[in-house]
Amino acid sequence: MAKLSESKKLIGQWGEDQACEYLRRHGYRIIGRNYSCRFGEIDVIAAKRGFLTFVEVKLRRSDAFAEAREYVDERKQARLRSAASLWLAENETLLQPRFDVIEVYGEPGMPFRSLRIRHYENAFE
Questions:
Q1: Does residue 58 contact residue 103 with C-beta atoms inside 8 Å?
Q2: CB 99, CB 84: distance < 8 Å
Q3: What angle do CA 75, 63, 5 make, to 5 degrees?
Q4: pLDDT at 109 over 90
Q5: Which string of b and e fits 13-43 if b means at least 16 CB within 10 Å?
Q6: Quick one: DSSP state of residue 2?
Q7: Which position among 1, 20, 72, 89 has the lowest Cβ density within 10 Å, counted as fewest Cβ atoms?
Q8: What angle do CA 88, 85, 5 make, to 5 degrees?
Q9: Read out DSSP for 62-92?
Q10: Could you tell me the pTM of the whole model?
Q11: 45 with 35: CB under 8 angstroms?
C-alpha cells in the first residue's frame, strides 16, 4: 500500500513539475510549491504582471472521461480560497491574487510531444 501511495506522489510531482515549467516558459516566476496548511494545499504559487496566482494542478492520462478542471469542484475551491487567505495573511504582497487551474494530460515516460497542458486563468473567484 505504501508503494502505491509513494508512486502516486511521484506522478503528482511530475505533473506539478510540468505545470511549473509551462508557467516559467510563459513568463511566470514561481514563488512557492506545495504550500500546506490546516485548510488544504496549494500546488503552485506564481507571479506575473501584477498577479499572484494560486494554481491548482490537475493531472490525468486523458480527457476521455472528463476534463481535469471539472475535479476542482465547489468544495475544493473553498479549501483553496481558505488556504490562499492564510498564505496572504502570512506573506505581505501588493499583487492581485487570482486562482488558476492547469490541466496536465500525460504521464511520466510518455513521449514529450504527447504531453498536453491547458491553462485556465482566473478559473474561479
A1: yes
A2: yes
A3: 65
A4: no
A5: ebbbebbbebbeeeebebbebebeeebbebb
A6: H
A7: 1
A8: 105
A9: -SSS--GGGGS-HHHHHHHHHHHHHHHHHS-
A10: 0.85
A11: yes
